[in-house]
Design goal:
Number of helices: 6
Radius of gyration: 26 Å
Shape: elongated
Largest sheet: 12 strands, mixed
Structural class: alpha/beta
Helix content: 10-25%
């Protein structure tokens, strides 16, 4: 099933190349498994083109002083442990027979064959130990690089910025370290970035959120410093900051954000839940749990009409839980446990009848079970914050948050 998905991605990638420098003819080839003449899956009616394989720097047999063979052999020499024997197939000049290497035929705009190229590398769950090498930049036609769940370490070579065709980069669950891999900021075609479960550290660059990425996974690293305030520029549908050492406030923005899932959990964030989050109207999952956020919740959260999972647990939030939040129609789970909320009203009481998961334990709600001891509730934290909420005197109208922020009018939840 995974190979079928990879084939479809490769076909889409090479269809796009028709409009640029390279096109794929009817003989698109994808090498699957151990390769060899019996291990290639061919789509269409073509066969290997008769062209000169040395015409392109990224061709299978090399050329231009580098090429795929040189790149992969240099990388092989930097891999020190291969318990599954993957590299035993990395022998000889036919790199399309190498396990985990996927190839395709290519043509120029005139239909002339330009040789086979390495279009994807998928070594997920290979348990390989080693480092990445600068020669990988020779793979100029590489569209997919998946290295999930190995033991690669060290830093990411800056030369990878030359992988101009790369759309997916998955380095997750390895042992990479150093600062954020700036090479990815220069890869123009990149759509998917996954560097979670590594040891990257230092600040996050603002430029990351100006890129046209659809998914950004940064979680479970050692990133620190403040979250860049331009996250609203990102078109990503998923952004995961979880389990780092990020500090400061959640960026306040008046901009529409098309993100569907955003996770801030288990960092060192402080301050308020910003009113501007109400503009993130496509949001389905918001998790800010296990930080040090305080103050009252903004009523603009009621504008998150598509929200399904809202997790505010393990913070220092206080005040009454707004009824408008509990009335959100698409809620599946609302978690506000381990805060200092002092109460909630009828719409929140009805959540259990709507089959919505609702955890309000370890707060300061009178008459409810599993609450904090009274001495802990006598002085709720965050009393000096400007985000303490005053009761509204008129309904909020969603869509007018920008014009009404700082006044009494902000948003009315959709029915």
């Amino acid at each position: 099933m995974e190979n079928c998905s990879l084939v479809l991605v490769l076909l889409l990638h090479f269809t796009t190349l028709v409009q640029s420098a390279i096109t794929v003819g009817v003989g698109v080839g994808v090498s699957i498994g151990n390769g060899g003449s019996g291990g290639n899956l061919w789509l269409g009616e073509g066969s290997s083109p008769p062209g000169d394989p040395f015409e392109r720097p990224g061709s299978v047999f090399g050329g231009g002083g580098g090429g795929a063979y040189a790149a992969l052999q240099a990388w092989k020499s930097a891999i020190t442990d291969d318990p599954l024997g993957i590299l035993s197939t990395w022998v000889g000049s036919d790199v399309c027979s190498y396990k985990g290497v996927f190839c395709a035929d290519s043509q120029d705009l005139l239909g002339n064959p330009t040789g086979r190229v390495v279009a994807a590398i998928d070594l997920n769950h290979g348990n390989l130990q080693g480092t990445l090498v600068k020669e990988l930049s020779y793979l100029s036609d590489l569209s997919i690089l998946h290295l999930n769940t190995n033991r690669f370490s060290g830093t990411i070579p800056f030369s990878l910025r030359e992988l101009t065709s790369l759309t997916e980069l998955d380095l997750s669950n390895n042992r990479f370290s150093g600062s954020f891999p700036t090479a990815v900021l220069y890869i123009p075609s990149l759509l998917y970035l996954d560097i979670r479960f590594n040891y990257f550290s230092g600040p996050l660059p603002m430029e990351l959120f100006n890129k046209k990425l659809d998914a950004i996974f940064l979680n479970n690293n050692l990133f620190e410093g403040e979250i860049p305030d331009n996250i609203a520029n990102s078109p990503a549908s998923v952004i995961n900051f979880a389990n780092n050492k990020l500090s400061g406030n959640i960026p306040f923005t008046f901009s529409y954000v098309g993100v569907k899932e955003i996770l801030f959990l288990n960092n060192k964030l402080t301050g308020c839940v910003p009113e501007g989050i109400g503009l993130w109207t496509d949001l389905q999952v918001l998790d800010v749990s296990s930080n040090s956020l305080s103050g009252h919740l903004p009523d603009s959260l009621a504008c998150l009409s598509g929200i399904e999972v809202l997790n505010l647990a393990n913070n220092k939030l206080s005040g009454e839980l707004p009824d408008l939040i509990c009335s959100l129609r698409n809620l599946i789970n609302l978690t506000v446990s381990a805060n200092f909320f002092s109460g909630f009203n009828q719409d929140c009481e009805r959540l259990t009848f709507r089959d919505v998961g609702f955890d309000f334990s370890f707060n300061c709600i009178p008459g409810k079970g599993m609450q904090r001891p009274q001495p802990q509730c006598s002085g709720a934290p965050g009393g000096g914050l400007s985000c303490l909420r005053n009761p509204l005197t008129k309904p909020l109208v969603c869509g007018s948050i920008v014009g009404g922020l700082g006044t009494e009018a902000a948003a009315t939840p959709s029915p």
